[in-house]
């Protein structure tokens, strides 16, 4: 049976992990029916923290992952930033991570028959953060992307 | 070891949150380690009270935690070196994927000590386990002698263990 780690860690862990990564509310995008548009997601980490990149080199590490819920906008491509390769006291080799501020770009296509008008597309950004000497439970940030289909 | 009430556990959690690492305390100032009952990788029920009379290194960890991975070879060595002197390492995994993720990891690391699957109750009882690794050194009377949050040196553990063994 799957369990949520937030549940396993308890309230203290949830409170601590909430402030590690913040995502700025994305700017509204406008897209014509049948065409494409880009959305940029700006994330910031507290000083001293890093998250695994979208492609960590160790299978046991939890990758950063952005997922959009189904809607009138379909993600064609999600472009993560280039990972930094940093060496930490606990790692024998450099790890592929993101730190400080980083941006994730998503290219969307609006269906040709998508209903015109405004809407909100929901997404989730899953991440797992560490410092030089400790790691925190994986977390999921909720994303709300406002859009208008023209 | 005494079973702690919810109120006691909450107070214990607050006390633990106040600071991140505590070297070995004097025996009279040690608090009882919260009791727990968990399953090991073979499905056997394990209670902390089963280890009464032994010095226990209780380590909360996860497969995705790099600093935890660095400590594991030290714990393997401690288990081998001190097992006959009344010592045991007990790992408590906090992996959300459960044994499916943990068993191959343990095999790959040749872990020689007992690992249990953690749950919300045990994490809360031990202060919420805000980050990993978090380890407690429990004395032969079932009291918490020392606590380490985050990666500390191997010698810090050795110092604690040598005081208790």
Detailed description of the structure:
The complex is a heterodimer of chains A (150) and B (165). With 150 residues, chain A is mostly beta strands. In chain A, 9% of the residues lie in helices and 49% in strands. In chain A, the strands form 3 sheets. Chain A has a 4-stranded antiparallel sheet with strand order 1-3-9-6, with no helix packed on it. In chain A, strand 7 and strand 8 (95-99) form a beta hairpin. Chain A is elongated. The model of chain A is unreliable at 1-17 (pLDDT under 50). Chain B has 165 residues and is an alpha+beta fold. Chain B contains 5 helices and 10 strands; from the N terminus they run H-E-E-E-E-E-H-E-H-E-H-E-E-E-H. Chain B has helices at residues 6-17, 66-82, 99-109, 120-125, 154-164, and strands at 21-22, 31-32, 37-39, 45-47, 55-61, 87-93, 114-117, 131-132, 134-138, 143-149. Chain B is globular and about 40 Å long. Chain A binds chain B through residues 1-5, 7-13, 16, 60-62, 88-91, 95, 128, 130-138, and chain B through 13, 17, 62-70, 94-98, 101, 105, 118-120, 123-124, 127-133, 149-152. Strand 12 (135-136) of chain A pairs antiparallel with strand 8 (131-132) of chain B, so a sheet runs across the interface.
Q: What's the gist of this structure?
A:
Chain A is mainly beta and 150 residues long.
Tell me the layout of helices and strands.
The complex is a heterodimer of chains A (150) and B (165).
Chain A: H1 5-9, H2 11-18, E1 21-23, E2 29-31, E3 36-45, E4 50-52, E5 65-68, E6 73-79, E7 84-86, E8 95-99, E9 101-110, E10 117-127, E11 129-130, E12 135-136, E13 139-149
Parallel strand pairs in A: 2-13
Antiparallel strand pairs in A: 1-3, 3-9, 4-8, 4-11, 5-10, 6-9, 7-8, 10-13
Chain B: H1 6-17, E1 21-22, E2 31-32, E3 37-39, E4 45-47, E5 55-61, H2 66-82, E6 87-93, H3 99-109, E7 114-117, H4 120-125, E8 131-132, E9 134-138, E10 143-149, H5 154-164
Parallel strand pairs in B: 5-6, 6-7
Antiparallel strand pairs in B: 1-10, 2-10, 3-4, 5-9, 9-10
